Amino acid sequence: MAGGCSIVWFRRDLRVEDNPALAAAVRAGKVIAVFIWAPEEEGHYYPGRVSRWWLKQSLSLLDSSLKNLGTSLITKRSSDSVSSLLDVIKSTGATQIFFNHLYDPLSLVRDHRAKEVLTENGIAVRSFNADLLYEPWEVLDDNGRPFITFTSFWDRCLSMPYDPEPPQLPPKRIISGDFSRCPSDTLSFENDSERGSNALLARAWSPGWSNANKALAAFINGPLLDYSRNRRKADSATTSFLSPHLHFGEVSVRKVFHLVRTKQILWANEGNTAGEESVNLFLKSIGLREYSRYMSFNHPYSHERPLLGHLKFFPWVIDEGYFKAWRQGRTGYPLVDAGMRELWATGWLHDRIRVVVSSFFVKVLQLPWRWGMKYFWDTLLDADLESDALGWQYISGTLPDSREFDRIDNPQIEGYTFDPNGEYVRRWLPELARLPTEWIHQPWDAPEYVLQAAGIELGSNYPLPIVKIDAAKARLRDALTQMWQHEAASRAVLENGMEEGLGDSSDDAPIAFPQDMQMEMEQETVRNHNHTSITVRHYEDQMVPSLTASLLRGGDREEEEEEEEELNSDHRNLANDGRAEVPDDVMDREPVRESVHRELAQFNVQIALRNAEDSAAESSNGTAASRRERDGVVVPVWSPASSSFSEQFVGEENSYLQRHPQSHQMVNWRELSQTG
User: Polar residues compositional bias: what residue ranges (predicted)?
Assistant: First the structure.
C-alpha cells in the first residue's frame, strides 16, 4: 500500500465537511476524488429533470471546494460503476477505495458487489456511515431484532447509551494523487428542451454544501423557534428547506442534529417551552428520515411491495383518465389541483400538500400507490427512494403503524385547515382567483351568481369533482370487503396444505404501470369501474422525484384528539419540511422517459455485526467506539432469513439477495476484508 493513493468515491455525500470517507483518505495520504454518473444502474429510478439539475450544480460546487483544498473531482460516465472504478484504479495506481454507505436496495446490491470485486483485485475497500445518526444494525430491540414501528425505533435512538458522533471539520488541505492519465468525462444532466426550465430553478434554490450550511443556519436562527405553530401553513415558508441538501449529502444529519439540540438546550435554560417543543417536532422529522433508511435496509422490497400482506389483495382501480387528471391538477378539488400544478411547475411541494395529494390518489381515486410514488420520484427536487417508500406505504395503510386505510381525508376540510385564506389555491389555480374565500375550497357549492361573478363555469374552465367524497367512501368500503374476502380465500388455501401460500393468487392479473414507467409488477388484484378483473396494458405517464413528506392527517374526522393528529402528521415529515419557495413563473416541465430493467422482488435482510482489525495507520485515532463510527470497522453481514423476524411481515420467504443476479456475492460477505 505504500506509495499508492486512495480513491474517494463520492455518491450522495457531496460535501467536504463531516465526510468520513474523505477524512480517512486524507489521513492515508494522496487522494483521488471520483464521481461516477451511472443512472442506468438505477433501473426505473433514473433521476428526474429537477433532481438532475440539482446534482449538476452540487457537483460543480464540490469540484470548486476540492480545488481550493488541492485536488479536483474526476467525473466518469458509465453504465457500470464497478468497472469504472477498476479503470480509475488502473490509470492512477490507487491501492485503496473509501466510500460512504447508502441504504436503498439498488445501492446495497451494487456496493456489496463493488466490495467483493475490488477486494478480489487486491484493492483495500473501506466504507463509513455518513448519512445516519446510527447505523441500522445498531438500533435493535431487547431481543436483537429490528423495530417495526417508528415510535419504538425513535425512542430507542433517543435513549442509546452513546450519542451520535459529532460532525468533523473539513480537511485543511488535500494532497492530490496523479490523475493525469485519468481525464474526466463530460457529464450531461439536461437536454436543450430542459435548460430553460432549469435556469429558473436557480432563482429559488442554491445547491451545494456551503449553501446547505447557510440554509441550516437560517432555519435554526429563524423559523425553528415557531416551527411547532407554523409548520402546517402551506402558503408560506415555515419549514427548513433542507431535504434536497440532505438527500444529496450536502449537509450531514449529524450536524443538523447537534446544532438543533444545542439550540434546544439554550432555549431550555431560558425557559422557552415553545422553542423546546419546536425542536422536538423537528427532530422527529429527522427521526423519520432515519426510519426510512432503517426500513429500507431491513425490508429492501418496501418500495415495491406492501409490508402488510393483506394489502396485496386490495383491488386497485386501473384508470388512465384518473391518473392523468391527478397529474395535471384537474380533479375538481382545488387544494389537490393546486398542489399538483405546483409540483409540475416547480418540482416542489410543501409536505402537508404532499399528504393531501397522495392520500387523494390512494383513497379517493384508489390508484396503485406505487404509481404515485414513482411519479413523485420523477418530479420532486428532493427525490428520495427510502423516504418516498415510507411515506406512500404509510398513506396506503401498509405499515404496522399506518393510519387506518378506511379513513378518507376530505380535501375541502383540509383546504380550510392548511390554506384558510385560499392564497395557495389562488396562486396555482388562477381560474379560481376571483372566487371568495368562503367558496375557494368548494366551488361546486357556490351559488351560480358567485360563480358567474368569478368567471367560473364548472365543467368548462374548471372541472367538477372527478369523484364525490361520499361515493369514494362507499367504493372504498366495497374494495376493503373484497380485499378481506380474497385474503381469507388465500389463507384457506394455505391452511389446506396448498403450496401457493398466503399472498399468492395465480388468477390475478398483474397491474401494468403506465408505459413510460415500464415497471414489471407482481401479481395483484385488479378491477375496473365495473368491478371485473381485467388484464391491463401499459399506458403513458409523465415523470417527476420523491415523497419525503409528513404523515396522513385528518379531514373527515377533524375533531379527533390533537395528540393523535400530531403523531400522525409528523410521522411522515421525513426531514422534508424544508424547501425554498419557487418563483411563480417557473411553469415549464418536461417529461423524462425511462426504461425499467427489472422488478425488484421481495426479500428480507438479516443484520449481523462483525468487528475487523483496524489498520496500523489508524490504530492511534481514538477509542474503539470512535473507530467503529469513523473508520467503518463494523460491517453489515448479509444472509438468508434464519430467524422468525421474517414472519413479522408477509411475503418475505424468498430473499431478494438470493433471487437477484448478484445475490451470491452477498452470502460470502463475511470473507471480505473490511479495513484494508
Answer: 663-676
Looking only at the bridges linking them, the beta strands covering 31-37 and 73-77 are parallel
* Phi-psi region at 34: left, alpha or beta (left = phi > 0; alpha = psi -120 to 50): beta
Kindly report the number of other CB atoms within 10 A of residue 330's CB atom: 17
Provide the grid cell at 625: 467506539
pTM, whole model, 2 decimals? 0.77
Instruction: Answer yes or no: is 84 a known binding residue.
Output: no
242 annotated as a binding-site residue: yes
* 2 pLDDT above the threshold of 80: no
- The overall average pLDDT reported for the chain is 78
Q: Is 535 annotated as a binding residue?
A: no
Residue 603 pLDDT greater than 50, yes or no: no
Report the C-alpha dihedral over residues 554, 556, 558, 559, rounded to 10 degrees: -130
Q: Over the stretch 269-280, which tens digit does the pLDDT of each residue have?
A: 999 999 999 999
Q: How many CB atoms lie within 10 A of CB 439?
A: 19
Residue 384 annotated in ligand binding: yes
**240 annotated ligand binder:** yes
CA 242, CA 220: separation in Å to the nearest integer? 11
Residue 18 is assigned to a ligand binding site: no
SS3 65: helix
Cell of 274: 415553545
Name the H helices within 378-468: 385-395, 411-418, 423-428, 448-454
